[in-house]
């Protein structure tokens, strides 16, 4: 059975990603990061999603990105916005080089587990202003991982699976529901309370709400 | 003044790298990783080297690579070898994807500090079996960092400086001495004691000793 590391944020997208990896027959190693994000409930959500999917191992990796801050998610001096960023503008919720760091650590964990496949729920459609969600970056990262690990010496390559890359939120939700994802377990809100209940008004909540509405699927999100 | 992040392990190579970055006029931000390595003294050495060089800021970043181990440096079940690896063999001291992880975090720190230059003391000559020390990997990483940060949107690029890439240990030592590096402050030994004194017999000590001998420079290493 092939092994894969799945980056799990506890949100809707990564939960769907995990269901896809499972459908595709991978033994799943899930990985979350405790990077000082405001939303602590997402770490609990990740753990529960991983257990429910029968992952082989779940890693919750401590990563102190508050050491340098510079993002609304890791710096208390920067407020979380209620509006989406304007076209061409990088949102203040962008965390410097976050996906580069997350993928690198996933490759390190994966190499130690003897795997060469990673899954990440990046998406070009809804958040096209995050530079580290675009296909060109993912391709460049796969090459760096291939050359920077033992894979390079064994003629192997790393594959970074991005099954959500070109799907709308509506399509992601439809796919996840067809695979049995329980979205009530997922947390997308930037301001979720300790129990994982969403604010309903932040940019992330709005996108999620619109997705369920567009898919004509009742929104299972627990709002406070 | 241009800014650069310099990866500092506390060893001979990275200390030389820092001196080169300083010579080249960069405002230096130094970064070390507390990744559960056996050799704790190297973290103290890094801090002292950074202070001595007048770095703007020094980060000692906690990174629990013992969570998955799989290297003699991060897993107590794997012994540190006294011999160098055979040609074509990856040493057991290889830490999965270490330079990929270190460079990614340096890029994150650097992006938050508004810099686009990194220095890393990788070297092809002495340790050619570490996949993550080779020029092809460094080039691939630079591209991934460029595409995975705001640089991509601003038409900027990341430069990864590897000034030691093609130097022998002898040449590195000669260059460092000409730049005033105090090598007695550096720790290369895999088995250094708490005070930073070297064992003199591990693979890293042997390479270092041979370097001073070849340069005909008295070895300032503190042996125990």
Structure description:
- The structure is a homodimer of 224-residue chains.
- By secondary structure, chain A is α/β, with parallel strands linked by helices.
- In chain A, 35% of the residues lie in helices and 11% in strands.
- Chain A has seven helices and five strands, in the order E-H-E-H-E-H-E-H-H-E-H-H.
- Chain A has helices at 12-23, 41-52, 98-112, 135-147, 151-154, 169-178, 203-215; strands spanning 3-7, 27-34, 57-62, 117-119, 159-161.
- Chain A has a five-stranded parallel beta sheet, sandwiched between helices.
- In chain A, strand 2, helix 2 (41-52) and strand 3 (57-62) form a beta-alpha-beta unit.
- The mean pLDDT of chain A is 90.
- The interface between A and B is large, with 48 and 48 residues.
What is the fold's blueprint, element by element?
Two copies of one chain form a homodimer.
Chain A: E1 3-7, H1 12-23, E2 27-34, H2 41-52, E3 57-62, H3 98-112, E4 117-119, H4 135-147, H5 151-154, E5 159-161, H6 169-178, H7 203-215
Helix pairs in contact in A: 1-6, 6-7
């Amino acid at each position: 059975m092939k092994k894969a590391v799945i980056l799990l944020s506890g949100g809707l997208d990564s939960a769907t990603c995990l269901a896809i990896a499972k459908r595709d027959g991978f033994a799943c190693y899930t990985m979350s990061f405790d990077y000082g994000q405001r939303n602590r409930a997402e770490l609990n959500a990740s753990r529960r999603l991983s257990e429910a999917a029968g992952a082989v191992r779940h890693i919750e990796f401590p990563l102190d990105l508050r050491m340098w801050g510079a993002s609304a998610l890791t710096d208390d001096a920067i407020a979380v916005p209620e509006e989406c960023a304007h076209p061409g503008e990088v949102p203040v919720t962008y965390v410097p080089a976050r996906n580069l760091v997350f993928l690198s650590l996933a490759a390190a964990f994966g190499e130690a587990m003897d795997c060469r496949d990673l899954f990440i729920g990046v998406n070009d459609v809804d958040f096209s202003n995050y530079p580290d969600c675009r296909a060109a970056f993912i391709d460049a990262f796969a090459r760096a991982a291939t050359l920077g690990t033992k894979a390079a010496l064994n003629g192997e390559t790393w594959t970074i699976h991005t099954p959500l890359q070109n799907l709308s939120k509506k399509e992601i939700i439809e796919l996840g529901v067809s695979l049995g994802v329980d979205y009530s377990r997922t947390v997308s809100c930037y301001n979720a309370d300790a129990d994982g209940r969403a604010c309903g008004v932040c940019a992330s909540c709005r996108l999620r709400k619109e997705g369920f509405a567009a898919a004509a699927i009742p929104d299972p999100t627990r709002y406070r």
